Amino acid sequence: MHHDARFIELPSPEGLAQRSEWLQQALASNWSALPTAVHDWRDSTFMALQALSTPTVIFTHFLVINSIAAVVSDEEAVVQCLPANGSIHHLQIDGTRWRWASRGAMLESIVN
Question: How many structural domains compose the chain?
């Protein structure tokens, strides 16, 4: 097993109260409206996926999945889907073409 820090949740302000408010605003926003640190995180995450050369399983978070979904769909909304806890999403890459082979279970979730 390999731990890759590029698949952690997006960077956000310190402090639980401040983080919660910021996160709610970010979720209602577009990727382009978020700070540079978030863009750098998103680019790093996607570059990590692009660098994979063999089938790989990645255990990650809600917004990592949404950031990849936005890149694949070429859409700006931060929230692209509401993946259920433990859901499995299968991405296939053929050269430079990315597509969802299957999407996991979607549920309403509480983001804290």
Answer: 1
